[in-house]
């Protein structure tokens, strides 16, 4: 599933190539969208909010196109003469603006709205917002009504608490802070939780200018390494870069997302 940094880069690309252009044609395989309503409207804004991409078009009323990529979706921008990198049969939405096309492939969630709040109002603070409202994220984590029993690995992926963190940054930020994904949120104080969220923010913002293969490095306290290097994510059975303990992995939460961690560097803490 694309994480917040991927959606941020996608928004920047679409904004660069389509921003300010007038839609000359709009097509979709979803007739209920009535996507032809975009024709003649101007790309006013393209924004990333957590894992949601919002495109705003002028007019009365303004229309907001929301997409969520889940595990399969992506946006591409082409010139009219370009060869598409995916087959046309996978295109769910095609927006033309003169000689430029924005094509949405395989996204499972596409809405055309007049008010975005109904679709994203449940989200917690966007981790890539400037500034990131970390205190509000901490407060939301404390007010879920779970008596502090919910595991940190689940808390970080809950978009109602903080929007934009996915499995990679969940695993890597927990490692940097020496916290097990299985530690209950009630077992750590607000400062520790704040530092964990800020670590995720720092890692993600450090990768906004990189290609898809993200940079993490091999030493959480030293200089970063090459592209694609992670400390624990997808390193199950390999030695920890800090202590040589074999990295563990196990499905976690209702969605059974795979957590990766070092049992030695990230011991489980108990509730007081």
Strand content: 15-25%
Tally the beta strands: 10
Strand order in space, largest sheet: 1-6-7-5
Helix-strand string: HEEEEEEEEHHHHHEE
How far apart are the termini?
Answer: 35 Å
| Overall pLDDT | 89
- Count every helix, treating DSSP H or I runs of 4 or more residues as helices: 6
Helix/strand class: alpha+beta
User: Quick one: overall form?
Assistant: elongated
Helix content: 10-25%
Low-confidence stretches: 220-227
Largest sheet, in brief, is: 4 strands, antiparallel
Radius of gyration: 20 Å
Structure description:
- By secondary structure, the protein is of the alpha+beta class.
- Strand 6 and strand 7 form a beta hairpin.
- The radius of gyration is 20 Å and the shape is elongated.
- The protein has helices spanning 4-18, 117-120, 134-142, 152-157, 167-176, 190-206, and strands at residues 25-28, 43-49, 52-57, 63-68, 74-79, 91-97, 100-105, 109-113, 248-252, 257-261.
- It has six helices and ten strands, in the order H-E-E-E-E-E-E-E-E-H-H-H-H-H-E-E.
- A four-stranded antiparallel beta sheet has the order 1-6-7-5, with helices on one face. Strands 2-3-4-8 form a four-stranded antiparallel beta sheet, covered by helices on one side. A two-stranded antiparallel sheet has the order 9-10.
